[in-house]
Amino acid sequence: MTIAADPAFAAERRRKPRRADPIQKVAIGIAALLAASALLAPLIAPYDPLAQSLLSRLRPPIGFERFAAGHFAGTDELGRDVLSRSLHGLRLTLALAFAGAVIGLLIGGALGLIAGLRRGWVEDTIMALVDMQIAIPFTLVALLVLSLMGSSLTVLVLVLGIAGWEQYARIVRAEARRLSVQPFLEAARTAGAGPVYTAVRHILPNLVSPLVVQFTLALSNIVILESTLSFLGLGVQPPQPSLGSMVGLGRDYMPTAPWIVLAPAALIVALTFSVQILGDWLRDRADVRLRDR
Amino acid sequence: MIAYLVKIPVKAMVTLFAIVTVTFVATRLSGNPIDTFLGDGLTAEGREELIRYFQLDGTLLQQYLAFLRGVLSGEFGLSFIDRRPVTEVVAERLRPSAQLLLASVALTVVVSLPLGVLGAVYRKSWVGSAVMMLAFAGYAVPSFVLAIVMILIFSYWLNWLPVVGNGSFLHFIMPTIAMSGVLIAALTRFTRNAMLDVLGQDFIRTARAKGLSEARVVLRHGLGNAGVTVISVIGLQIAGLAAAGSVVVESIFSWPGIGQLLVNAAIMRDYPTLQFGVIAVAVAVVVINALTDVAYALADPRIRLSSA
Predict the structure, then answer these.
(1) What pTM was estimated for this model as a whole?
(2) Membrane spanning segments where (chain A) (predicted)?
(3) The CATH number of the domain covering residues in A22-41+75-290
């Protein structure tokens, strides 16, 4: 890269603080809080997210007129507690995002490792697949698949998993290629280590930190994809609450009851924002040169 | 350069072939193709004709070949809802989608280039941090959240802007901004990084040393060189991002474009429309990518003048 060639820029890079700055600290705190709320949602949610109470429908949050005691974030059109639904929605959204990111990591990591270590037509084929995945607007493929196969959670998780595999594959391939010519790997090979052994023992450990960074960034992208699909009515299906579907369904009540959409929308943004800053911080710490795309 | 230029359409054709095949596999994986492709409300003869044309009662290979023949001759079946050829249905939607796309790209370029340059030049001051924060926010806020919040503020509370349709200039404001959010984030970040790359190079020091004004160094020598990369990003990334964004934004604002058509088709299970819509948008993205590659080759002297 050319930046490093310039002494001033190189010095700036070295001086880059490894400890979190204030904004990053706040973001990491929010991310931890959101993760804890998602994990403990069934314990801390004040109400059953599906329990309807038709007598206290469309009640506003605390501090407004007509506030219904106990429903801190108000209630929706069926009298369900918005706070409880948001917490459960957050739980489902995060669970789906995690599962999707893991699937992407497994697919992309395996293919990237194979492409990086086995050259020739294997590598060409895998990289052609990567190029195709980049060229095809994935949201459209997701629409097609979810419409055809139905929006079960299994299909949704698979779709979310396939959404970002190519990023892992690119990173792993590049790192594997770089590492495979390093002296310590030549030494291992000279000592008689087989290809599988070197891949598992010597290459994978070196990939942990770039993969952790990519995993975090993928998490935030998958949260956005899942919320978008659920918002459009093609992701998580009612009555199960997800942050995206709450915004989508609450749209009809926006003029009179904006809290139904604002609570989950705020949680989505808090989640993606804090996770992205977390990923950026991890990247700085790991000092991995990733292309930011 | 010739070899480079020849590779581009070949790659595009391979990608298109893959997309068509993936769509075929996806539509045939899920149950009976006669149900997926014909729907209700056809006359007996119409039904017969479609089954014969697309070989829907044949083996999978026969169906695939018939499907490819349909693709080549522009036959993609009838919409379940309109009962017209899906090609017609999609063609009517092209204009509004293109208008929204152009408006968004224009807004993106106008906002992102100055921001990206500022972010690179003042990278150490609060200006640079603010630009990066803005880019972060653009990535973090999904377009539907941006759209919903704008509707809440500007339509329901302030009563300034219309929500539904594409009738006037005012109708363009919110959809364009909602579409551009992510695009601005992407392009700003990229412009900034490209500028940092260029500004760190030796010829920039030379330009300063020979006494050029800072503005000329940054804009002419800096942006002039970073511009090539930036344009390639507009083509390569923006097309894909915009395709995804238009699906969401058009359906929120009832914009009569392809994105809204696709979402409606997906929800109402109008498979022929959905299938052709996906193929059409994918073709558009792949073609834009290929054109960008060609433009890049022509703009970059290292490729233009290479003998290979």
Answers:
(1) 0.85
(2) 23-45, 92-114, 256-279
(3) 1.10.3720.10
